[in-house]
Amino acid sequence: DAKTTQPTSMDCAEGRAANLPCNHSTISGNEYVYWYRQIHSQGPQYIIHGLKNNETNEMASLIITEDRKSSTLILPHATLRDTAVYYCIVGSGGSNYKLTFGKGTLLTVNP
Amino acid sequence: DAGVIQSPRHEVTEMGQEVTLRCKPISGHNSLFWYRQTMMRGLELLIYFNNNVPIDDSGMPEDRFSAKMPNASFSTLKIQPSEPRDSAVYFCASTIRAGLDTEAFFGQGTRLTVV
After folding, report:
1. What is the CA radius of gyration of chain B?
2. Given CB atoms, is B49 within the 8 Å cutoff of chain A?
3. Quick one: which of A76, B11, B19, B25 has the fewest CB in 10 Å?
């Protein structure tokens, strides 16, 4: 699986958009980009995933560059409850499917 | 659906004792994963099952660890004998299938302390 690089930590003001970057320069053609987050003491929670096109759901938007070597998770209006560790994961399917978590980005939303 | 259910939520045991962690995946999900989380090593995948069959157990730290999935609705992770360095939060997750375009649902975890 391709490796990902994320900043260790980021801050965001409540109500503002949070933009979390992820580099995955070794991603291969059949690998998806997944985002999960983990709020303190809880199990990881799925946010969104994508292959090539930008994706949006009720939680966030995922912007993937045309060369697929990087992506950005956007939380449009961050709240205090969005404070968590955000993991960017690249994975493929089939018999080798597995989600390998890195260290992620600690996003702190400040009032 | 109640989601992925893990038990117990907390376990404190003495070194050398056998520990069994339990997981009930979401009904209809065909893949199940066991993870371990520590401050030092983060989230580590230990093993995963597809249709009750272990597919990849390369993350299992040593022979003291074993995992089973006797049926689609139940899995166990056993540590025998337990050691203080096994202290961690153990998460179970399930997906409808192991493949592209799926999301994994995680349980609330079991916090294991070995003294």
Report:
1. 13
2. no
3. A76
pLDDT at B86 over 80: yes
Task: Give me chain A's average pLDDT, please.
Answer: 91
Q: What is the pLDDT of residue A28?
A: 86
Nearest to A99 among B42, B100, B104 (CB): B104
Binary contact (B100, A46; C-beta < 8 A): no
pLDDT digit string, tens, across residues B42-70:
999 999 999 999 988 999 988 999 999 99
Q: Report the helix count and the strand count for chain B, using DSSP H and E.
A: 0, 11
Residue showing tokens 């009904």: B27
C-alpha distance from A43 to closest chain B C-alpha (Å): 5
Mutate to test the interface with B, among A42, A99, A101 (most CBs of B within 10 A): A99
Rounded Cα gap, residues A59 and A51, in angstroms: 18
